[in-house]
Design goal:
Elements (H helix, E strand, L loop, with lengths): L12 H7 L9 E2 L19 H4 L11 E4 L6 H13 L4 E4 L11 E3 L5 E2 L4 E2 L18 H14 L2 H19 L17 H7 L10 H39 L5 E3 L7 H4 L7 E5 L6 E5 L22 H8 L4 E4 L5 E4 L2 H13 L1
Parallel strand pairs: 1-3, 2-3, 2-4, 4-6, 7-8
Antiparallel strand pairs: 5-6, 8-9, 9-11, 10-11
Helix pairs in contact: 3-4, 3-7, 4-5, 5-7
Amino acid sequence: MTLHHKVIYSHFSLYTCCVGVPIFTRVPFTRGVKNETGRGVTANMLGLGPSDSGFESRRPDYNMKLVTHEGSFHLDDLFAVATITLLYPDIEIVRTRDASKFGDADFVVDVGDICDPATNRFDHHQHGGAGVRENGVPYASFGLVWKKYGKMVSGEERIADLVDKKMVQPIDAADNGFNMYRETKPGLSPYLLDNAFKALTPTWRDPETVDDTFANLLPLAQEILRREIKKAQYFFEDTEIVKEAYRVAEDKRIIVLEHPMAWKSVISRKREPVYVIHPNQMTGEWIVACVRKSPQSHENRKLLPKAWAGKRGKELEQATGVQGAEACHNKRFIATAWTREAAIKLAQLALQA
């Protein structure tokens, strides 16, 4: 096997510990040559059935090909490729800038100077770019791919839209040079996903290549994307559960949820709620959380009593008179107890304070 025909596979051991679940995937790609030696990620490995991928409609002897550029990469092209490989798990990935390899490709991503979704050409580096959203965020390759395939990979338009707002647009904006945050501490910047991925990219001192890193990070990018899709689905499911919990609550100042879930966007829009109670699935405690004045506000409607601030265990039990009271944050926006009943009692006392 010559250097130019060497197939580079991803290693999954590091990324198993990163996301907490095994990612038993190997993603073959080649540098500008067709790979005939093996298959890529399978639908079963990614939790996708045949009908999810749509791949079963193609001839079994047809090998799909995706071309993206070789060398350094950013989040937009990595997640654009991840999106496509979730839909077509057996696709061959070729990393090259050789334009002669573009013609027979089913997808050309972040290279080629052409944006034509009808023929699956998704570049944004050409003069004039590839369009701008209504909110002013320009499209990068991730957004271009997501615009066409987001609903297909997510299953629902509203899920695709939520992932687009939370993940796709910020990645596109950053790739196009937009600053997505305001520096509040001179000399300090947020540590972002892009920083973490760059930390895994080799320097001139390392034996690995950037192409190796792309292959290694692709399974992790797939898993992140799958989880964002799943959590967007959970968000809409949680919303209905929270609405029902509010509807049936006898005292709408205290809303009790039987599971930890996304409640802020619903409850903060209601006039009456002051505290929300829900279990902590990791510790077994019950949480008493203050409700903010609005979804956009950082100001709570009513903080917990000053006398509780910073107290823990027996000290908090004595201050509240509630057996099972465990802790109250020093900033008084959250408290915990070991039983549902104790948490409700804390909330009732806080209302009276």
